[in-house]
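User: Some background: our group keeps a shared notebook of sequences we're curious about, and every so often someone picks one and asks for a predicted structure to add to the entry. Today it's my turn. The entry only has the sequence so far, pasted here. Could you supply the structure so I can complete it?
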Amino acid sequence: CHKRICNSLLKETPKFTVTWNDATITSVKNGEASVASGAQVDLNTTLTITVAPAEGMKLASYKIGEGEAVTTVAGKTSFEIIVTADTALSVQYVEQYPAKTIAEFKAADKNTEYKVTGIVTNMDGKAIFIQMGGDALYLLDYGKHAEGVAVGKKVTYRGKLGEYNGLLQMSNPTLVKVEDAAADEKIEATVLDETKYKALVANDAAKLVTINDLVYQDGSIAVKTNINFKLGETKVAVRFEDKGDSANILAALKNIKAGDKISLENVNIGWFKGPQAIISLVSSVKVAELTTAEKIARVKAELEGNPIVINNGRSRRYFAYLRRCNDYLVT
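Assistant: Of course. Here's the predicted structure to add to the notebook entry:
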């Protein structure tokens, strides 16, 4: 009899206690049966653990007691463990989208989504320009600006790093949050002279700048087109995108002629195999007023070079005699 009792005890399956103390562990199941913290289960029981990470977090690993962290569960919301001893279960989380500074994001892995924060300096029909300190980033959202995003706001976006002809950008960004910027976070435009413009590199794309005394050379005054200016002896390509404030920008520039000067205040550096100046708002365009002498020279050139059509349908060259009198143009 005693022998039978001993044999029976030897055949009993060992039981172990399973415990946890984490509200993100939403269920522990043995098959379809729920297991409560502190319950005992048999040796080699397979338990399914389900977790609910806090917003913005994801599962990184789990540990049993002081054992090594198991990372094969990273990114999952459920996993299995096999009980072989008393089990004190804990789980570890990391941010789902790690935060990066703009500079760090530009050097990051292109296959991973990150969060980036900056101050909105401009928006146009293609992108949002953000900057924090001296680092700036181009957010390619194709003009689909999220509600609440505005110039001067502090925004956090998440997305992956992309590159197009040297332009580092966040492609298809997703808005995380919008905040009011602190007073000391306001972005001031950097004034570029010819030397500073020539020194620009691809990493300067999206920066807020002011460029004075640009002289119009040629190029159609139209959206999504390079309009050619010179800053000293250096060519500067100026562009503005469709939608947004494009109609007003077009109206402000449409009458400029070769040799006219403009200044661009609070515009952004674009990049397409080299720097560009991107206009987002008509308020950035300052067309220089012609002097009286310049007006006289321009009208004289127009009159001397163009035929006039008269009422009988015949055309003749109209000779204008110009003289200067008290700073007025007289014919």
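Suggested note for the entry: The chain is about 15% helix and 45% strand. Helices lie at 2-11, 102-106, 194-198, 246-253, 292-305.
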